């Protein structure tokens, strides 16, 4: 799929920033880098999910996870060490900062996160409130209902 540069439209419009941001996200472009870092979304149970992101080279101190309303944001910011004077001949391991956003469905909560072997696992659970769950309604017999009303009146 081709990507479209919407930058000229930003300069000539007012109030459509959110619309253009949504178009960029739909096209798969986030922070100018499509698809970084790669991730999987798995279903681990009836109401349990797991997002797994490949964040090789990042420590737990360089990653942050924020859950706000129906959005989950994972940020990685690589800290540059001043004492590192090694000359890199080829850079194949990405060390750039990133921000990945996920839209969460209603009643989905983040249960925890773990970093293991360069993979960040974020566990999610969908908990529907008791008031919103389907419930069974007993059907009363017409003859029985009339007798109960008469007994209460007497």
Structural class: alpha+beta
Query: What is the highest CATH level, the class of the largest domain?
Result: Mainly Beta
- CATH topology of the largest domain, by name, is Immunoglobulin-like
User: Roughly how much helix do the residues carry, as a percent range?
Assistant: 10-25%
Q: Please report the number of helical segments.
A: 3
Strand tally is 7
Instruction: State the low-pLDDT regions, or none.
Output: none
Overall shape: it is: elongated
Strand content: 25-35%
- Rounded mean pLDDT is 78
> Can you tell me the number of structural domains?
2
This entry's quaternary arrangement is single chain
Characterize the largest beta sheet: strand count, sense, and whether it forms a barrel: 4 strands, antiparallel
Helix/strand order: HHEEEEEEEH
User: Could you tell me the radius of gyration in angstroms?
Assistant: 26 Å
Q: Give the terminus-to-terminus CA distance.
A: 76 Å
**If strands are numbered along the chain, what order do they take across the biggest sheet?**
1-2-7-6
What is the CATH-assigned architecture of the largest domain? Sandwich
How would you sum up this structure, described in words?
With 154 residues, this protein is an alpha+beta fold. The protein folds into two domains: 30 residues, no CATH class; 112 residues, Immunoglobulin-like. Helix content is 18%, strand content 31%. The chain has three helices and seven strands; from the N terminus they run ααβββββββα. The strands form two sheets. A four-stranded antiparallel beta sheet has the order 1-2-7-6, with no helix packed on it. Strands 3-4-5 form a three-stranded antiparallel beta sheet, with no helix packed on it. β3 and β4 form a beta hairpin. The longest helix has 12 residues. The protein is elongated. The mean pLDDT is 78. Keywords: Stress response. InterPro entries: A-crystallin/Hsp20_dom, ACD_IbpA/B, HSP20-like_chaperone.
């Amino acid at each position: 799929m081709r990507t479209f540069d919407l930058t000229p439209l930003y300069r000539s419009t007012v109030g459509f920033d959110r619309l253009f941001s949504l178009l960029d996200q739909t096209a798969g472009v986030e922070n100018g880098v499509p698809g970084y870092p790669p991730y999987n979304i798995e279903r681990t149970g009836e109401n349990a999910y797991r997002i797994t992101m490949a964040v090789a080279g990042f420590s737990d101190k360089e990653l942050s996870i924020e859950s706000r309303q129906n959005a989950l944001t994972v940020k990685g910011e690589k800290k540059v060490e001043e004492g590192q004077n090694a000359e890199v001949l080829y850079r194949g391991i990405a060390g750039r900062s990133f921000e990945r956003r996920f839209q969460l469905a209603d009643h989905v909560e983040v249960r925890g996160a773990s970093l293991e072997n360069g993979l960040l696992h974020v566990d999610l659970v969908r908990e529907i409130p008791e008031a919103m769950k389907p419930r069974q309604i007993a059907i009363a017999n017409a003859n029985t209902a009339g007798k109960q009303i008469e007994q209460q009146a007497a």
